[in-house]
Structure formats: structure tokens, C-alpha cells
């Protein structure tokens, strides 16, 4: 039996030992929910009526989730543009390919833009994905202005009636102002020609409490509309994502569960929350 | 959240005035534990570490209570313990008895192995070695190309007989690379491998085969400093599944507290050997335990601060400030103003202030500091007499009223400026070494690169290699 169930059986019978509370606290902390939120859960759980404790705790935690739509936006009368952003190595390029695959399978015409002109072979990496999923990609010279790659891509997407444009960007640490400004420019330049509809921040499930900082700064800089949590196929629970949803009110739109293009799922809050307690 | 941490530490210490009772120590250690958790130290390690602090503090309670500043004494204990754990086993790269020395890089996806491979090659090369890079990540699309580009940029050859992108066997590439290296007289072989999760048994097995085939002199576990509680599970999985000799922390140029460093060292008993601090090839450094300790504790990192300040504050301003420091002169309103102006120019103000101990409030205020405010601040300061500019204590009500009339700013604005200045002055005083929280060292001058002594010492340990070249890798820097 999972700890979650064991505990709530114990709550029901009114006999949770201090040890068991510590165990629950430990489990939740190990999932990267953050000590403050964990204590909030425990405090509330302790004061709950035994009968409906399971329900109440699930409700409490669910109430922290964003109530915004988790579906990817789709504009019917014009190009829909998605910008993929995040710190280094979280899985942006892979997620770009995964989302493209999903959209193509839904019958859309999708253009990719390799706006990571900085990291070695980042463009080639996206090109390889584009070949594999058989969709075109706009690229630029190494170290050229990423905003100009985005501009070229938007121009092409509009001229050739693509339904979606997905722009992959270079990884950047949120505390580097110049790099955040560079990203702001990508958004501004793109917006001039076609509205950026989604800005998805890719967060690695192994990230600790720093994820909250990442989210805040990227939201301020480029108006993030949702999150992708990657690498949930590993042993990390990605609890910081819940803390992030609670603090920002923005939804997790997808989760990444592997290195293949099909390893992308919509966010399932029930499964996710259960995972945190296990 | 991290500001809250800094605040918590400030309050922990200010709460410890006068005689420290056992129950004070209990409260203190539980706060330490929470602070460590907020810094992503794993639960079990935070537990055992704070318990150890408690025991040490109890042991030394007499000494603590006798000292003029008990809080500082306790902080010393915490900081020392942390620095010792982090740095206890620091060492240099081990050379093979017969060349080449083989270094294997392993870790999770996206940890930064490929970039690190290039940096390491560059670092070794600068020290007179002839490294070879080996492209054994045949999984991630264009990982091979990436390593080739990186190798090219540092003029280090890359052994890449397989195209990758799912084609080729990493075990045989690794094997072939050794013959190639011997043939071409490379004295170092750095093998980049594909990232994998700790729970993927098949891929862990593959890594094991690589390791068994090349029998590396060093296996480095490369880990992202932003990693959370999973650090321990992952490090244990790699240790048990493959085994490694040392840890490399990456992305330390970010603002993560990096508590995982403590967790990993505690649990695996393996030392951290290098730090990767940026995307450029030279953003690579030895691991400095004392810097990491202050970082985890959220107490700021004076050495890094001095280095950033050196880069960011214009020459002239920093020279002036340095002179003042050296002469032990008072930090004045004028310095405050010129500092604000300098800082305003440098963009990285938050980062810089994030490194300052106890600068939480100051940081917030400076973040909200816009250009018009700079103009207003200047007006206020210019309405002060020289005495007032160097000594905020004389600013009584009537003086403030006069300054308010002179500058055309409200009294409340004058008050808040004075308060802000007092805070800055306090920080500066601490930085001069006087009331500095122990263990953070003093600031020898913002104009010079700072090399805290402790850091150098930790690398002056005896060589374990039989390398006749005697060129201590660590001194290359
Ligand atoms: N196990 C697992 N690995 C993933 C997932 N998503 C991405 N990865 C892997 O993580 C590594 C980094 O992925 P990338 O897509 O290159 O990450 P990125 O954010 O584009 O990296 P940079 O552009 O260098 O900042 C690769 O090895 C991917 O295969 C996931 O959901 N699960
Ligand atoms: Mg990428």
C-alpha cells in the first residue's frame, strides 16, 4: 500500500503517530514541493476531520493548481506561434520536436524555427528532429541574431499558410539580464508580424526550489503562458511544479516522459498529485 | 524565497544575543535545518547535518557563551563544518601511471557533460597536455556534432568514428578511442557519454560496459547545481550502478543555492573537483568549498562579489572605494551615491546584491530604484552638509527638515534614504572585516581579484599522481 493510502487509513482510524506525520513530511519534501508548502499540507491535514481527510487533502492540494486552460492555444484564422524557453539543458529542443509531432498528428501544418544560434550544434539538433518528423525548419547562421531567425520563420509561416510556428530558443539562466533581454527581443520582433500565442517555459523535473525563481523571472521577461515539465520518466517527482503553479497561477500544459517524440503527455493532475505522495 | 532565507539567517543570528541556552540551540538547529531544505539539501542530510551542529554547539557552549558575539561563534561552527564536508577531500586530477589518463563523464540528461568535456580539454591543454575528446554520446541528436564544434573551438581533436543520432555502439567507440589516443600520443582521453536517468537499468548497464572497457582513471559524475531533492537518489544510483570518483557541479553561474552539493558529498563521500560556471569555454574553475558553503547558507559570497564588482563597477569608482577600504575610512553618502550610479550602469545589480550577506533589504530597495529616483536621491544628498554626508547619526529632525526644504523632497523620502544608507554603511563595515560573519573572510579590495586563502590551501594537498611534469593542474586556472 502506498504511504498516501496507509496514512489516510491511519487518519480515518484517528491514530496517526508523530512518526507517520514525519514520514509524510519526508515524502513530500523529497518530491521538491518545498518545506513551506509541505508544512502547510501537514498542518491542515492534522486539523482535518478524520472522515474526509483524504478528500480534503486532495482538495487542498488541487486548489493550488491553476484554473487556466491546459490546452494548447489554436487560432483558426491566423498563424499560431509558440515560443519555447527555459534554462540550459531542460529539454527545450526535444519538447519542440514533441509538440510539433503532436500537432502534425492532429493534422496541422507546422513550421519549426531554430532560434538557438548560440549553443554548438543546436541548430543541427533541431534539423535532425525536423527530418525525422518530416517538417520544415528555418535556421540561421551560428551566432546570428535569434530575433532575425524568428522573423524569417514568421514571414515564411505566414506566406506559406502554416497553422503553427514553434520557435526553439537557446537555454539561458534567468539571472543573466542580457540573455533575458535577447529573448524579449525575439518576442517583440515576432509580435510585430504575428502574435506570439504561447510562451512555454520548460522546467526539468529534477529542479529544486530554484524552479520558482526561474518561473518568476521568465514570466516577467517574456510573459510565459504555461509550463512543460520534462524528464518525469526519471526518479524525480517534479514537486516544484506544483509550487510554481500555486505561486504563478499558470498551468502546466505538458509533461515529458522520455527522449522520443511521442514521450509527451497532457498534464494529468490526479496522477501527478498521487505521485508526490508516493 | 531566497530573500526569505537570507532574512531568516539574519534573524536567527540577531535572535541569539546574550547567553545561549540549550533550547536556543535547539531552535537554532531546527531553523538551520529548514534553511538547508530551502537550499535543496536533501532531508536526510539536512537532518544529520543540523544534529551534528547541535552537538558541536553544545560541546562548545561554554566557549560560545563567553564570546562577545555568541551568534557569530555559532555561525563559525556551521560554516566550518559545511566547508569541511564540502572540501575535506578536495584533490587534483589523478594521472595514469602510463599515458593516456582516461576521464569518463557521466550524468543525467542536460547536466552539461558535453560543454564540460570541452572546458576540461581546454583546461588540460592550457596546462601543456594533449587531450583527445571522444564522442560516445550516440543517442542525443547531434551530440557528436556538438562535441566536434566544441573541440574545434579549443583546437582539441575529437574522436568520432560514429555519426551518432542512434547509430553506433558507444562501448566500441570508447574502446577504439584508447588505441587511437596511444597511437597519436594523446596523454588525456575525455569520454563524453549520453545522459541517462538513474533508473534506466539498460543504459546504466551500458555505461558500466564502457567503464569496464576503458578502465578510466577518473570517472566524473556531472550534476546540475539546480537539482533538488532527487540529487541523492540519482547520485546513489550512479554510484552503485557505475561508480564515480569525483563530482563536477555545473551551471553555478545561476542563482540556485546548490544544496545538492552538500547532499551528494555527504551521501557518496566523493569530492567535488570542478565547477562549471558559464557557457563559455573558460567558465570553468576549481571547486571552492568555502564559497559553496556561504552560498548554501544564503550568506552571500564575498569572494564572488568582489569579482563581479571588479567586472561591473567602473575602474575609477572601484579604485576610490578600494582606497577607502584600505584606509579604513567611513563609507559616506557620496560613496553611496556614486555606488548607486555605478551599479545602475551594470545591469547585474540583483546578482551582485544577491551575493551580499544581510543585504536583503538593500537589494529590494535597489531593485526598485529607477532613474528618476537616482535624480531625487542626488538632490537630497546634495542638500546635506559634509558632516551629514559622512555621518547619518547627526541627522536629527531639524536637519532633516532643512534638507527637505533644500531638496524639495518630502521628509519621508529623506527618512527612507537615511535608513537605506545606514544599511549600506553597515554592510560595508561588515565587508571590511570588522563584524563580518565569521568564515566569510574580509574583502581585500574590490579592485583586485580575490583568492581567499582557504581555497588555495585546500588544493595544496599532496599529489597522488606520479606525474613527473609536476604541473599542478589546479594551479593553471
Ligand atoms: N529522460 C528524458 N530525457 C529528456 C526529456 N526531454 C529531454 N530529454 C533529454 O535531455 C537532454 C537535453 O535535451 P535538449 O532538448 O537538448 O535540451 P535543451 O533545453 O534544448 O538544451 P539546451 O538547448 O542545450 O539548453 C537530451 O539528452 C534529451 O534527450 C524527457 O522528458 N525525459
Ligand atoms: Mg536546445
UniProtKB/TrEMBL annotation, chain A:
SMART domains: AAA, SRP54
Gene Ontology terms: biological process: SRP-dependent cotranslational protein targeting to membrane
Protein topology in the membrane: Peripheral membrane protein
GO CC annotations, alphabetized: plasma membrane
Subcellular compartments: Cell membrane
GO MF term (any one): GTP binding
Pfam (any one): SRP54
Entry similarity comment: Belongs to the GTP-binding SRP family.
Descriptive protein name: Unannotated protein
Species assigned in the record: freshwater metagenome
Signal peptide interval: none
Main location: membrane
Nucleotide-binding as UniProt keyword: yes
Keywords on record: Cell membrane, Cytoplasm, GTP-binding, Hydrolase, Membrane, Nucleotide-binding, Receptor
